[in-house]
Amino acid sequence: SEARDLFKQASKLDPLPQYYDGLGRAYEKLLDMTKSARAYEAAIKGDPSYIQPRLGLANVHFARKEYTIVIEELKPAIAIDPDHVQIHYQIGRSHLEMREPDLALEALTNAVKIDPNHGLSHMAIGLAFAAKGDAKAAAVGYRKATKTTGNDDAKWLPEAYRLLGYAIREYGGPVSEQRDAFQNFMDRVEIEDDQSKEVKKLLIPMGRR
Predict the structure, then answer these.
(1) Angle of helix 67-80 versus helix 85-97 axis, rounded to 10
(2) Residue 126: which pLDDT band, with cuts at 50, 70 and 90?
(3) In terms of CB atoms within 10 Å, which of 6, 94, 110, 117 comes out highest?
């Protein structure tokens, strides 16, 4: 791509960590994770305190399902910038993928303390409680995700509403709350798929709001 070529030229002329970080992001968008990782590593080598390439490298390892490496890569980043919400979120998501919900909750709780409006962290908290078998607590996490400000157009928002509806249904919550959650999901679905068809069936006996 044009962006990749520009960053590649810039990194050769003046190998600043920012250029390698940009090159890493360009390769990541092209799904060339090997070259992306090399670029991020070069950026970190140039400036070990530079957080962005550490997060980029963590994303590469996460995409490869190398969750233990993600956590190892981001631990030094906490010492550099303990209030960076994305660091705690990514660590939490990695623990969640490793089926370690308690450790996930520890990291994700730190994330929402730093930024109460980080919707993805609230949603991941819901997933962590769901993994522990606590549907009621999971619903609290999903609901908080839907209430965060500035996320009205977030790509993850429909899924938060869908999960909220199922969590309320699982713990036997009010039908009206299930309906509202599922209807909010359906209102945001752009393409009908198996998930939306299933929710539509659940909504029929509930009626519309």
Answers:
(1) 160
(2) very high
(3) 94
* Rounded Cα–Cα distance for residues 162 and 86 (Å): 24
Tokens 């198996």 label which residue?
A: 194
Residue 59: partners with Cβ closer than 8 Å, 6 or more residues away: 28, 90
CA 41 to chain CA mean position, Å: 22
Q: Which residues contact 71 (CB under 8 A, 6 or more apart)?
A: 91, 94, 95
Nearest Cα residue to 39 out of 59, 58, 55, 53: 53
Separation in Å, CA 107 to CA 40, 51, 124, 155, 156: 24, 17, 10, 23, 20
Distance CA 85, CA 190 (A): 30
Q: Which two tokens stand for residue 156?
A: 């993850």
For the cut 60, the answer to whether the pLDDT of residue 3 exceeds it is no
Q: In this model, does residue 8 exceed pLDDT 60?
A: no
Is the predicted pLDDT of residue 70 greater than 70, yes or no?
A: yes
